[in-house]
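The freezer alarm interrupted the setup, so I double-checked each line after restarting. Inputs confirmed:
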Amino acid sequence: KAGVTQTPRYLIKTRGQQVTLSCSPISGHRSVSWYQQTPGQGLQFLFEYFSETQRNKGNFPGRFSGRQFSNSRSEMNVSTLELGDSALYLCASSRLGADTQYFGPGTRLTVL
Amino acid sequence: DQQVKQNSPSLSVQEGRISILNCDYTNSMFDYFLWYKKYPAEGPTFLISISSIKDKNEDGRFTVFLNKSAKHLSLHIVPSQPGDSAVYFCAASENNNQGGKLIFGQGTELSVKP
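Predicted 3D structure, all chains:
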């Protein structure tokens, strides 16, 4: 079975721009969660989508948003980028959400 | 408020010996716990999990122990191998309507020396 895939793997943007990251879950998985990893804050939960609905949300500003499509693929969007948004963004999928999550390789976002 | 804590940022062990990584949590509603292994610039790789109805789960060289009264879990790796060198994260979730939200500890960097 193919694992979780994320595109792009690397991205460089400038302050004020917006960015969209994509995640394709493992086949049959309906839950997709997003996490941000930074050296200072560690791995932090952004939000979770299940059956095209946002089911959980972490403590991030409204500039961070996401969506899920009918095939369970998910995108996250960050608008008005700030330097502090530079991070590794990780996507994880699971069958139902409240079970084992499997992570993709991540997207490394650098904001200049 | 850090609900999941890994108090040891690093651990060094000799090849063939036991590695013990520790994790403490504060939220008594957590009922599912996981350990992940991570290399730089890669996504975490799932290792082993344990439900709160158990106190031990074993998978090959990896064993996770859960002490609910102490709100403490540990990962034992026996025997340790140089390929085990990585950052290990413990994570916890509340299955009660919390869906796919994992709370992670800060990680422990394990170095296994030949």
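Quick read of the result. Chain A has a mean pLDDT of 94.
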